[in-house]
Amino acid sequence: MSEIKLNLFFMLSAALFFSTSLYGNSARRLVEEGNQAYHRMDYDPAAELYSKALEADSKATEALFNKANALYRKGDLEGAADAWQQAAVQTRNRDLAARAKYNFGNARFGQGMDQKDKDPQQAIQHLGEGVDAWRQVLDLQPNNKNAAHNIELAKRTIQQIQEQVEKQQQAQQQQQQQKEDLKEKLNQLKQQQENLAQENQQQQQSSQPNTEDLQNKQSQLNEQTRQTLDQMQQMQNQAAQQDSPSNQQSNLEQSIDQMQQAIENQQKAGEDLQKQDLPQAHQSQQQAAEQIQKAIEALNQQSPQSLQQDQNQQQGQNPQESDQQNQEQQPSEQQQEQPKDQQAQPQEETDASQATADQIIKNEGKMKELRKIYIRSQQPVEKDW
Questions:
Q1: Stretch 291-296: mean pLDDT, rounded?
Q2: With CB atoms counted within 10 Å of each terminal CB, which end of the chain scores lower, N or C?
């Protein structure tokens, strides 16, 4: 199929631009100036000129379509989507309506891909809106293969995001369960250490203290504490590999630090018991119990981000979650159009216009690259103002 450079809206014959409207000539002049700015890649002034053309003639839906293109080129996907949506509703030209809906779908896809890293639920919503738009294109143009391709692509992307969210939720649930089990184990260790400290006091009041029994019990508790610390360090490694939130890793790291100090005091208590220095051993045992308590408290800490997510969930909002990278997908964008005046397009623009949507996705997140791509076009849209 031959590639045709996008002629947006303006076949500059006098007959086409003559209008009974008082502002017809003014609107035409502003659109021509907007096109010139667009060709220079001056998208801000181009969008402003198209807006002025709409002020001069509110029925100039082609100018609204052009404005959407300029907004898209400068990275304002939301503004472009709104303008394309308005153009699709206001125009009576079925071809222009189909193009506007197609491009609206592309903008929503772009927004979805941009947001999937920070808010997968919002990304899914935008991708779904893109699917709806492309289905409407098929209602107007049943043979539009690119719209059909984009629908399948967006549906696969939605499924992949959903699957990744489910995996992350499962991983978070598993981590939360491990955290609860760990806290229960730490509470047991703290209680055992407090019991040994109390037993130490009782032995101090005895005329014949049984330091050997105390020493054996302390030695066994020390071993249990070391095993628990090993488990915590394994959890820390898993959290780093799974790219868990930094606040969770920080809490676990603080808890590990406290447990290492607790082990040092337990070892000192064992040495003091071996020397039959019960008062000094009692002090070390108390310190060890206090540090285990601090380890528990570190695990219970919540960051401001976690508190905000809890509030969002209570208010019915979706917390932000991370997602997977998707480096092979992008909708076909052959209908994203470029304004054209009566002058021929430069050769370099014609070459650049061959870029496809699948190439754009490989540079996902790089909006500067996205804005540089000139996409394939269709026949010019004519409008008798």
A1: 95
A2: N
